[in-house]
Amino acid sequence: MKVLLQDRALLRISGSDSEVFLQNQFSNDVSKIGSSIAQINAYCQHQGKIIGLFWVMRYDANFLLSFPINLLDKIKSRLQMFVIMSDVIIDDISENYYQFGFIDEKKPDSYSINERLSILIEARNTNAEITMNYNHEWNKACIDSFLPEVFASTSEKFVPQMLNLDIDEIGVNFSKGCYPGQEVVARLHYLGSAKRRLFSFVCDSDLQVGDSLYCALSKAALARGDRYKGSGIVVTRVKYDSLFYCLATLDIDLKDDEITLNDEHGPILKRLNNE
Q: What backbone torsions phi and psi does residue 111 show, to the nearest 5 degrees?
């Protein structure tokens, strides 16, 4: 299935120092990006919290960064701060190219994100075939694939481990050089101290990115007068048929407990056992 990916920005990073520049900024090993791969990369601040999450692709001698468009100004201005004297040019080409997603289908010149999903970048001055809006299909496939996003409302709220980016080093490479927040991310990894992970849920009530997950406390806590505690954040969501599906962070030790949305009176989220 071909899907026009709406509301995504596209930055082109060019210049002789572009690979070294990105290698010094991002969490994954940019030098390992092949010609048909969209590599997941986190852009972290010094405390290890993710500012933006990108699909990074090689495009001729340049690199392309695809990410939610509501982070465009924040990402572009921050990257530009670190160019300094390097031969690096950052261009916003969001209006010049279509971004198409393919589900369970691989096209020539497309970039594989994972086993199910790929992305094709196509110039708008071509006779590109614009399909109907199937973004709900794409978003559901992303949730099924545990492919997270970071939006303006959730920027700087997650460390990579919360989004499972360290698992199989899908979005974090622990043997590459330094990048912003690397010490924090590496410390969590080597201490094995990630207490919150990414899980998928289904709910029969509407939910939004940034909503909170709550969980009942122990009997001892209830005896003290406490009722519920915050335990996670909705990362992505989609309405599919009559239900609402989402990826959300959750304290690992609460994964089998009853989880409600936003407060103790909120709708119940049912965890899908597909992680």
A: -115, 125
Do residues 99 and 10 touch, judged by C-beta distance below 8 A?
A: yes
What phi-psi label fits residue 81: left (phi over 0), alpha (psi between -120 and 50 degrees) or beta? alpha
Q: Which two tokens stand for residue 63?
A: 């690199």
Q: Are 107 and 120 in contact (CB under 8 A)?
A: yes
Strand, coil or helix: what is 178?
A: coil
Q: Name residue 187's amino acid.
A: R
The CATH superfamily of 2-151 is: Aminomethyltransferase beta-barrel domains (3.30.70.1400)
Pairing state between β 259-261 and 212-216: antiparallel
What is the distance between the alpha carbons of residues 227 and 224, in angstroms, rounded to a whole number?
Answer: 9
CA nearest neighbour of 111 among 81, 76, 146, 66: 66
CATH of 154-271, one of 3.30.2130.10, 2.40.30.160, 2.60.40.10, 3.40.50.300: 2.40.30.160
pTM score above 0.90: yes
pLDDT in tens, 107-155: 999 999 999 999 999 998 766 666 667 789 999 999 999 999 999 999 9
Q: Tell me the helix, strand and coil percentages in the chain, rounded to 5.
A: 25, 35, 45
